[in-house]
Every structure is written in C-alpha cells, then in structure tokens.
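Problem 12. The chain below contains 269 residues. Write out its predicted structure in token notation.
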Amino acid sequence: MSLLGRLLYQSRKFYDDDFDWNTYTADSYERRIVGDIEANFQAVAEQDQLKFNAATGTLEVQGRDLHPNHQLVLEAIGRLQAKSVHEIGCGGGDHVANGKTVFPDVTYTGGDRGQTQLDLAQQRHPHLAGSLMLQDITMPLSRHWPRAELIYSQAVLMHIHTAVSHFVGLANMVNSSDRFVLLMENYQCHNFIADIQALQKGGHFDWPEMFIHRFDGSTGARAILLARDKQDLPELTSDAQIREGLKPSDRRLKRSNEDSARGLFGPAG
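Solution.
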C-alpha cells in the first residue's frame, strides 16, 4: 500500500478490513508463507516430526521449530481432548494438515472466505480435498457449516474491521461450537474480552454459560479460550489481562475502541 493510501486508511473513522480478500492470496498471503513462516519455521511437518505428549500437555517437535502460535493451537487440541476441530480462515491448509498429522483420530475441517486460498490449500495439500470449504464467518449463520467441539481462528478476526463484521464472526464461532472456541489473535486489534462479554450479555450466544480463560502455549504464545464449562485455567475478565506485557499500539487500540463502539447489543437477559 502506498504512503498516501496508508495515511488515508489510518484517517478514516470506519475502517475496511485489512485486506481485499479477493486478491489476498496473490497480494500478501503467499509471500508471507514464504518470507515469514517457511523462512523461519517449519510450516508443514512429516508424520514423525510432531507428537503430542499427553503427560506434559505439550507438543514435541523434531527438526525446525513451529511458529509459537501454531504450536499453541495444536497443544490446545490435545489438552482439551477435542474430538472434532474446525479452523476459521484455514488459508493454505497448513494448520489443518499438521492437525491431522498429530491427531489422526480427530475430525478436522477448515473454512475460508477466499476461493484462491482454498485453491492454494489444494495445491499444498491435495489430501485435504473434502476437508476444506468456502465459508465467510461474517455471513449469517448457516446450517451447512460444520459443527465441532473446538472451533478456532489464527490471525483472522484481527483483520476484520468492516462495520460490525467481527461481532458477527465471534457469535457465529460460538454458536457453531459444542464446547470450545479458541482465539489466537493480535489482542490489540479488537477489545476481544469486552466484546465477548457484551455479546454474551446481549443474548447473542446460544451457550447457557460461558467461561473466558487464558490459554498459554509451551513456547510463550497466549490465546483466549471460551468454554461452556469452567476449565482449570486462569480466567479473563478484562482486555488489560490478555494484553499484559504487550507493547501497546496507539493506532490499533484507537481502532479497536472505534470498532467496539459500533456494536448495538440485545437487551440484557
């Protein structure tokens, strides 16, 4: 994006999403896989390179390290003992492929709003045919979307800023899940905890009860875990808690406040 484009982008009160999803694969995603992930981490593992240790609740990695965020997701699946998992924004399919490698008995699916993303996933992982689907989580909830015990996003909701789309996405993730929702995101891009609390209070979630926890991976990454039943994990009641220790971004925090201010929630029950 040009300097003028960035200045205009940052000056708008109502932001668009961070990317044009129709051109995202060619504009950014493929380059990031090569330059950011594959250059520094193991993106796709072979059968004997990843193993979940149930005794320690950690992922044992042979060869190059996984990205800490990706490792956290796999450790969460193992520790929560989810029998079915669905990824929101599966992109090139690497997370789904690694998940199937580590947990072959788990039903693992993924959805993405970009057909070019799914085409890339088909190129990288032909064996995932039938496990990935076109899915825009900011559309009204569809009965055709898969349900799963654990639904997660990894660097997806953080990029959604158009109108109230990220609220819709959050509600759809919860209402498609039977037990858990895991948010592995940049926590300054939205006021995730306050937004979740407002959606819950406003009656936008189907779950009768919800517990908000912090989930830490073994290599330092942190995530927000929503659970129908209380877990033996630290509880989160504010965004300050999940942001603790992070270097603040005034621009992101300003935008997150503006995003939250656009939400109109149902009356408290």
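Discussion. The chain has a mean pLDDT of 94. Students who got a different answer should revisit the alignment rule from Section 12.3.
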